[in-house]
Specification:
The complex is a heterodimer of chains A (about 170) and B (about 200).
Chain A lengths: L2 H9 L4 H4 L4 H9 L1 H18 L10 H31 L11 H23 L10 H11 L1 H19 L4
Chain B lengths: L7 H8 L3 H23 L2 H18 L9 H19 L9 H7 L14 H19 L3 H12 L4 H8 L3 H23 L6
């Protein structure tokens, strides 16, 4: 045991160490080392001073303040309880179906979806739709002819083959 | 009724909301609680206010205490945590109150340092020594003062302090060592103690 080791052990020890005889290994070192003996003695004295420190008297009106705070907290609690009861009573006026209670957000979302979807559907069905005039054969023919000169012949060939297929004629 | 001999039946009655029983518990523990608050906070009015607040909260939390015999440890945990919250929230400059100021603001004998009765010379010496020690403790950083008070004044073992402060026991030991070193060096001129590390 060297001086550094002893001081580390002693300084970090619980105060019990200073009110009882030192362990044997520490005593051996302290007996041969005046500096460490003085160090241990000063820590013992410090511990003694700390242990002898007297308590101050608590103020006389301390309990009165505690009672006042307890009453204050009780009043706050009573107020909070009354609010909670009022909320519970208000809830009773609007009973929710049992399956909706655990999922109020889902229920609200579903209702919103139905309302919005229904509105959109009704809006579409009630508003006048523009009439779409189907292209006649002639219009298609003219359009195809403008886009592709060969389409004219192709269309004619297609028409003939379709007609033959329908009537069962063969070339 | 001393803290060490707190009657479990009284704790039980207090748990059921009996204010008179709670007052007995308060009377048995108020001295240590107030002294710890005062030495940690260093402001008489705040210490008084916080002490009252902790006891009021304890009154409502008491029904939740599972083991009546652990009342004092449970109360101590409430006190330590409340002090820590206060120290975290209050700026340090608002808390700096000297020992003299503490004694002056408190008036006369109410907060006066308790000293052993003896001859006038002995009383004076003991008073001076206590005042010097109070000053030295007062000047320690919060985390060092906390462990010194809990260990030396409250008599809590290192392991219990570690669990209260939620730090490893080694941290408590090293804080104790530093605090003792600081105290020894601060008191060296007065008591002949030598500071050490």
């Amino acid at each position: 045991m060297n001086c550094q080791g002893l001081r580390k052990i002693v300084s970090q020890s619980p105060k019990d160490l200073f009110t009882m005889p030192l362990p044997e290994d520490l005593t051996r070192h302290v007996n041969g080392c005046p500096a460490c003996a003085e160090y241990v003695r000063s820590l013992r004295e410090l511990t003694g001073l700390l242990d002898r420190m007297e308590e101050r008297s608590a103020p006389d009106d301390l309990w009165a303040g505690v009672v006042a705070k307890i009453n204050e907290m009780e009043a706050d609690r009573a107020g909070a309880e009354a609010i909670s009861l009022r909320r519970k009573a208000a809830k009773r006026w609007l009973p929710l179906p049992g399956f909706l209670k655990p999922i109020p957000a889902w229920a609200a979302a579903a209702v919103l979806l139905v309302v919005v979807g229904g509105g959109v559907y009704l809006g579409r069905s009630c508003s006048p739709q523009p009439e779409v005039e189907p292209y006649g054969y002639y219009d298609q023919h003219v359009m195809l002819s403008v886009q592709d000169p060969l389409a004219d012949r192709a269309a004619a060939g297609l028409m003939i083959s379709e007609n033959q297929a329908r009537t069962g004629e063969k070339k | 009724m001393a803290i060490e001999t707190l009657d479990v039946n009284i704790v039980d009655r207090a748990r059921q909301g009996d204010r008179e029983a709670f007052r007995l518990l308060f009377e048995a523990t108020k001295g240590r609680t107030f002294n710890y608050m005062l030495r940690m906070i260093r402001n008489v009015e705040d210490a008084k206010d916080l002490t009252q607040e902790v006891y009021a909260k304890a009154f409502f939390a008491l029904p939740g205490l599972k083991q009546p015999e652990a009342f004092y440890g449970w109360l101590k945990a409430l006190v330590v945590n409340r002090v820590r919250d206060y120290l975290r929230s209050a700026p340090a400059r608002n808390r700096e109150v000297s020992l003299e100021e503490m004694v002056e603001t408190s008036g006369d004998a109410v907060y006066a340092l308790g000293v052993a009765a003896g001859t006038p010379e002995e009383d004076l010496l003991a008073r001076e020594r206590s005042a010097e020690m109070e000053k030295a403790i007062n000047s320690l950083p919060d985390i060092h003062r906390e462990v010194v008070l809990l260990h030396h004044i409250e008599g809590l073992p290192v392991e219990r302090i570690a669990s209260l402060l939620r730090v490893p026991p080694g941290t408590v030991k090293s804080r104790l060592a530093r605090a003792r070193g600081e105290l020894a060096s601060k008191l060296s001129s007065y008591t002949g103690l030598k500071g050490g590390s």
